[in-house]
Amino acid sequence: MKNQLIQCNFVIKGLIPDQVKLKKKVWLKNGELLLEKKSDELHAYLLSDNAHTFNNEDQIASYLKFTCLVSNNAPDLEGGSRIWLNSKDELGKKPTIHITGRSVLPEEAIAEIEKYAHKFIMLIGKLHDKYTNVVSENDFIEIAMDYFYEAEKKFVYSNEGFISAVISMEALFNEGPSDIKYKLSLRAAFLLGLCGIDPFEAFDKLKDFYNKRSKLVHGGGTLPHDPDRYLVSKYTRRSIIIFMILLKDEKRRNINKNKRKTEILKEIDHAMLNNEMRNSLKKEINNGLKDFKLTIPRTFEGEGEDGNYRVTAW
Predict the structure, then answer these.
(1) If you compute the radius of gyration of the chain from its CA atoms, what whole number of angstroms results?
(2) What span, in angstroms and rounded, lies between the C-alpha atoms of 303 and 298?
């Protein structure tokens, strides 16, 4: 029996500003995922069939998680209704109606952002396609990505978001039940220091963040406001990217899956003691970071009809 083609209908919230239009449709997932802006909503139409409908939302969410690595946006999905198709050519031509509110942006800002919205989404697609196998092949990175995505959606100045961000770091840097705070802080600070972040500040901040995380999860009450909480997001994002870069390397991918995390952490520990290994790691990481560099404007500002504006689009 031939599988019936299905169009799964979603609306993506928070990927680009509501009022910004896409000048053309965006095709991802080898032509099986279509993104199209209609009114103030970014619609996503996923091609599936009646044998593979259980993980439709996950297929799109995989792209959305990569957004957090190159922007401050943490997009989410709404919807999930299905429509039967006669052929792949009908994808996107039978959308459902989904009505939500809109945010207000100056018309001048909208016009500027629209010049780059398509490029922004294509960058996310390119990153996803290049590194998604690294995530799927390494459970600890997948866990770190999931927790970081939740942290960005909930915002790290909320207790839930803050805890999720620290757990994401634990998933990357811890391989045993002892000395978790020290291992996490030292290893992360070392790697972050290789790409321009102050390692001494990172070491001290991460120890403090871990203490605060422990207080929260063990019922220690609320924490006083800390204006530096945003750093846990900055450190986690960069750490995930670094691990992706390192595990893209074919030699490391050939390590037995069950030993891969232990071996890469051992490599990091040894590089702290060996200048040649340190310099090699630094060069590799900084070359890889070029993939994640946003080559389009992030913030748009100017003078509009209603006064000056400054909008961070992504």
Answers:
(1) 21
(2) 17
Q: Model pTM?
A: 0.83
Q: 């031939």: which residue's tokens?
A: 2
For tokens 């970014």, name the residue: 42
**What is the crossing angle of helices 230-247 and 180-193, to 10°?**
70
Give the H/E segment covering residue 312: strand 307-312
First to last CA, the chain: 45
Query: Do 44 and 12 meet the contact criterion of CB atoms below 8 Å apart?
Result: yes
Task: Give per-residue pLDDT as tens, 13-31.
Answer: 999 998 999 989 999 988 8
Angle at Cα 91 formed by Cα 117 and Cα 33, nearest 5°?
Answer: 45
Q: Where are the domains of the chain?
A: 5-103, 121-292
- The DSSP code for 18 is T
3-state secondary structure of 8: strand
Amino acid at 129: D
Length of the chain: 314
User: What are the pLDDT digits (tens) for 65-108?
Assistant: 999 999 999 999 998 878 888 888 888 886 554 434 445 788 99
d(CA 279, CA 272) in angstroms, rounded, equals 10
Element (H, E) at 304: strand 299-304
**Side chain identity, residue 245:** I
Would you put residue 14 in left (φ > 0), alpha (ψ -120 to 50) or beta?
left
Residue 246 near residue 284, CB atoms below 8 Å: yes
